[in-house]
User: Fold this.
Amino acid sequence: DAGVIQSPRHEVTEMGQEVTLRCKPISGHNSLFWYRQTMMRGLELLIYFNNNVPIDDSGMPEDRFSAKMPNASFSTLKIQPSEPRDSAVYFCASSLGQTPGAFFGQGTRLTVV
Amino acid sequence: GNSVTQMEGPVTLSEEAFLTINCTYTATGYPSLFWYVQYPGEGLQLLLKATKADDKGSNKGFEATYRKETTSFHLEKGSVQVSDSAVYFCALSTNTGGFKTIFGAGTRLFVKA
Assistant:
């Protein structure tokens, strides 16, 4: 298995632009997580899905952030409009519903200038 | 709510020294506990886990025992190597319609040759 695949690996964008991060979970996994990692705040859970349904989005910082999971093999995290304080590494992770422990992708390093 | 507290870093050790990274947790119910490791520029990798009290997780010479009475899951290794230099995250996971994982702040480990 190729593991959790995220794209792009790096993204540099200007303030105010829309940014879309993509994630393909491990085949057969039915839970998917989006995390944000910064030096100041560490690793924060933004949102997680179970069977394509958002279960908890309380970590999404504000309305500029949105996430979708249209099917079991794809999810997106969108920021519109982006701001410099959104600069961080965004990780996607997946797990098999009743098996604890998540598998992480390599992350997307987002820089908003 | 659920939370994880781990010792602040960085921790600097000489090669072959004994390692302990402390982790305590607060959770309702019976969480599963994990240690993840993050090497520079990479995503988090699951290092070991324990799913019930008194379980010992182990992998690559690292060990941690699930202590319900002290709500702790300390990471230990008898003899560290330079290649163990990384950031280590303690985490817990509870079943809330899929396993939601909460991470500690991470502890950076430097091992000197």
Remarks:
- The CA atoms of residues 21 and 77 of chain A lie 5 Å apart.
